[in-house]
Amino acid sequence: MMGHRKWWEDAIIYQIYPRSFRDTDGDGIGDINGILEKLDYIESLGVNTVWINPMILSNQEDNGYDVISYTEVDPLFGSEADGERLIRALKDRGMRIIFDFPLNHTSDQHPWFQEALKGPKNPYRDYYVWTDGKDNRPYPNNWTAAFGGSAWSRELNGNQYYLHLFKQSMPDVNWDHPPLRKEMAEVLKYWIEKGIDGFRLDAFIYIDVDKDLTEHPEETSPGQDLNENGGNIPYYLSEMNESIKEAGEDVLLVGEATSVDAELAQWYTDPENNMVDKIITMQYFPEKEDEKDDAVPGDKQHAPLDLKAFKEVQKAFQAQEDKGGPVLFWTNHDMPRSLHKFASADSEFRDNAAKMMAALLYLQKGIPIIYNGEEIGMKNTAFDDPGNIPDAGVMDFYQEASKAGWDHKKSCVI
């Protein structure tokens, strides 16, 4: 007997980055009303699900992923009423809505962290990852943050350090602490009751931190590499899943797992493990690593696609026994525009390249995601001033590239 078919097995997802989608009040920033104005257009594309990047209250140092409040709409994008209107409008059209959920870290301006800074005895202290200094060293260990520098920062009025695998202003939360896990589940239930159908779990593979703070043998090493896919993640996520069932049964959880291959993706999405339903991974796109500059961080560079390796990766994901197939995409907010990265956006082959990529997206087994603008062949914009790019890692990359001898123009085409 066939099991219950989940709604997302037939999903065609349109990803909206609110900040740059449509501006209705003239402040140069996209807003919720802009999304509402374009719903006829979005529906005309044939999509049935909308994924919206963070529009909750944030310090906006990392485009919404540095959360100040998980349950408030950021006034930058509109009001609480605007958010509710958007959810209702999508429901009225029979469409589903997915929210982004940054669950690995918050802003340092989040009330939890502000309370945690009051001292070790504060009840919110253990909502974050703290440790003492070690052997008169400047930092507890040699882990580095994704956006540069150590992954540790010392509190101003104390002697402990807090962990931030991404950026100093984005402290990692402590998923080993039961009250924190309960708070996170309550956030999801809040939005499910508002009408949200699913969540993209941002950076979830880092939520189980190595409590031994194991040193890497090299002088420094990315803290993310040493803290991904930890053994407690199944427990944390299955507990969360059981909790949110009180609010809704058919809630889609898509895990962002940048380094996960097909085998590990199968483990994460196995229903028996009760973790996530689907995985989004950057491992779909193997690059020609030998064409990268060793003097510049490799994960910030963009080399040509290794076509033979790409074919093997696609075969591996297609071979999975996964209802609905894998998530399929060519680009998203963390990547250059697909025509810019994988084809030639300014050549005579632009239209044919776009059609070929669309055919591969739609003719495979899986759940396609179209990033807003991709449907019209949108290409990248080269910035004259990297300071105008609202991305937490851009200036670090620009400085490293300059040291390596890259000229200004090459560094700004990202």
TrEMBL record:
Q: Which SMART domains does the entry mention?
A: Aamy
Q: Provide a GO biological process annotation.
A: oligosaccharide catabolic process
On the tree of life, the source organism's domain of life is Bacteria
All residue ranges annotated as the Glycosyl hydrolase family 13 catalytic domain in the record: 15-407
* InterPro entries recorded: GH (IPR017853), GH13_cat_dom (IPR006047), O16G_dom_2 (IPR045857)
SUPFAM superfamilies, per this entry? (Trans)glycosidases
Any single GO molecular-function term of the entry would be: alpha-amylase activity
What keywords is this UniProt entry annotated with? Glycosidase, Hydrolase
Q: Which family does it belong to?
A: Belongs to the glycosyl hydrolase 13 family.
Name of this protein: Glycosyl hydrolase family 13 catalytic domain-containing protein
From which organism does this entry originate? Salinicoccus roseus
